[in-house]
Amino acid sequence: xxxxxxxxxxxxxxxxxxxxxxxxxxxxxxxxxxxxxxxxxxxxxxxxxxxxxxxxxxxxxxxxxxxxxxxxxxxxxxxxxxxxxxxxxxxxxxxxxxxxxxxxxxxxxxxxxxxxxxxxxxxxxxxxxxxxxxxxxxxxxxxxxxxxxxxxxxxxxxxxxxxxxxxxxxxxxxxxxxxxxxxxxxxxxxxxxxxxxxxxxxxxxxxxxxxxxxxxxx
Length: 218
What we know:
By secondary structure, the chain is α/β, with parallel strands linked by helices. The protein has helices spanning 70-79, 91-94, 100-116, 143-152, 166-175, 200-213; strands at 21-24, 42-44, 84-89, 123-127, 160-163, 178-182, 194-196.
C-alpha cells in the first residue's frame, strides 16, 4: 500500500500555523539539490486543469471529475520522467466549507487514481486560507513555488506552470516559471503566455522544452 505523509496543516482559525499544506510521495523523498543539479518541473493548478471546476467547489470525492485526457497526459509525462507538482489555492477550507482532513482524503484518492492510470504527481502544495485572510502563500504569491523548489530541488527558471486563470499566470511570473494557460482561444494572451486547450497539449510542449533545456536528473 502506497503511503503519503501530511505535514502540519493550516486551519481556518489559525494564521500562525504552517502557511501551506502538502503531501509528498515517498517514492521521491524531499531533498535539497545544489543549483547546478536542480531540475525543471511541470507545475499544475488543480481545479480547471486536472479536474472540472464546480461553482459550489469540490467538497467530496464524488464531486471530483477528471477532465478528458488528463490521466493519459499524466501517464505520458511520467514516461518522460517528468517532475509533476500541484500548487493549488483551496480557500474552501478557510471558508469553512470543507475540513482539511476532507481535502486530504480527496487528494489521496486523486493521487491513487493518477497512479493507477500510470501517472505520478510528486507533491501537492495547497494554500488553505480564505482570500480575505491575507496570507503569504495564496497564489498569485510565489511562496509555494519557492517551498517546492527548496523541498524537491526544482529549477524554477526552466519550469512551467499550467493554470486556467490570470492568478496562475501571475504566480508563474512571480516565481520565474513560464506561464501556460488553458484557454478557449477567444481572449488574447500576453506574449510570454503559452495558450493551450487542455493538459494533453502539455505533453508535446514539455517534450520540446525539455529537449531545448537538456534536463539532467537530480
